[in-house]
């Protein structure tokens, strides 16, 4: 495969407007150019929020991420997918945003914590792709990604949203410096999430998966959870493995337009409705237009063990 074919979608993206067409650009990035990378980056983005004691304490108190980690992971993944696939301004995107707001509305979450969470959705993917993407993001793409997240934040009613990527970076770094800290609830949620990630792999590989995930975390994030610092060799091996994967992806086939990446939720094998997502206590009467599928009780479903 020639360089021209590999970079054809980038040329298509550069022909779009990063402000007007930001949702389309992000969809091309997340579903075609970098689906695995952006998926992993957003997993780490949400994971980082547990290191804020107020957030970690709240999530631990609900018990949802410890009792039903696969179900809550799938709910979060599907809500974000609906928001980004349709766009925060699209019909299903607006419905998913309303569902997300209904879930968050049950709790006292400060605007500052919402802002930080939004910043993780901007900064974590861009930094991940700069380091481990098969190519680096073009500034045009960074602007489009930032604008898409700004639209989502506006739909969530968040105030004080930064105007550009640099503003999100400052907010992200300042907030982590000033607010990261250890809380036993945050650690419990983090451990449950790491155990979930490991459960997707054969049992003999699970300890290595957890160690690899920790090797990808910065020292201040590890310290906030009370996790030990990995060995330099372990960090180097994980870094090299991710960079090698990027090089292989660059040499591999381009994902066709006809095959966009989409989540495969283990908790909803027969389909889902947007109104079904999230804890049962936060659900509103079902709306029309959701995806058809059998109703699911609010029970924990786990993937293959």
UniProtKB/TrEMBL annotation:
| Keyword S-adenosyl-L-methionine (UniProt) | no
Residue ranges for the region (Disordered) are 254-305
Entry keyword Plastid? no
**Spans of biased composition, class Basic and acidic residues?**
287-299
Residue intervals of the ER-bound oxygenase mpaB/mpaB'/Rubber oxygenase catalytic domain: 51-244
Kindly state which keywords UniProt assigns to this record, in alphabetical order: Oxidoreductase
Quote the InterPro entries the UniProt record gives.
Answer: MPAB, MPAB/Lcp_cat_dom
MF terms from GO for this chain are: oxidoreductase activity
> Its Enzyme Commission number?
1.-.-.-
* Top-rank taxon: Bacteria
Q: What is this protein called?
A: Oxygenase MpaB family protein
In the record, what lineage is assigned to the organism producing the protein? Bacteria, Bacillati, Actinomycetota, Actinomycetes, Pseudonocardiales
């Amino acid at each position: 495969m020639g360089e021209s074919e590999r970079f054809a979608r980038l040329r298509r993206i550069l022909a779009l407007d990063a402000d007007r067409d930001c949702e389309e650009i992000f969809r091309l990035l997340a579903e075609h150019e970098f689906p695995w990378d952006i998926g992993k980056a957003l997993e780490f983005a949400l994971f980082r929020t547990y290191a804020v004691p107020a957030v970690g304490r709240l999530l631990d108190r609900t018990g949802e991420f410890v009792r039903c980690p696969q179900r809550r992971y799938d709910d979060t993944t599907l809500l974000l997918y609906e928001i980004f696939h349709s766009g925060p301004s699209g019909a299903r995107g607006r419905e998913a945003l309303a569902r997300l707001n209904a879930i968050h509305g049950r709790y006292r979450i400060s605007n500052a914590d919402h802002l930080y969470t939004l910043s993780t959705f901007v900064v974590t993917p861009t930094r991940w792709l700069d380091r481990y993407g098969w190519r680096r993001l073009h500034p045009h793409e960074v602007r489009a990604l930032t604008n898409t997240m700004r639209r989502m934040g506006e739909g969530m009613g968040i105030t004080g949203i930064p105007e550009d990527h640099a503003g999100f970076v400052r907010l992200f770094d300042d907030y982590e410096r000033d607010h990261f800290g250890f809380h036993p609830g945050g650690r419990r949620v983090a451990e449950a999430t790491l155990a979930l990630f490991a459960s997707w792999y054969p049992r003999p590989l699970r300890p290595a998966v957890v160690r690899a995930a920790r090797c990808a975390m910065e020292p201040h994030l590890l310290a906030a959870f009370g996790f030990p610092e990995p060995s330099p060799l372990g960090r180097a091996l994980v870094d090299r493995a991710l960079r090698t994967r990027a090089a292989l992806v660059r040499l591999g086939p381009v994902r066709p337009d006809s095959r966009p990446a989409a989540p495969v939720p283990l908790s909803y094998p027969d389909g889902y409705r947007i109104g079904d997502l999230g804890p049962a206590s936060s659900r509103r009467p079902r709306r029309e237009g959701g995806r058809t599928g059998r109703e699911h009780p609010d029970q924990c479903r786990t993937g293959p063990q």
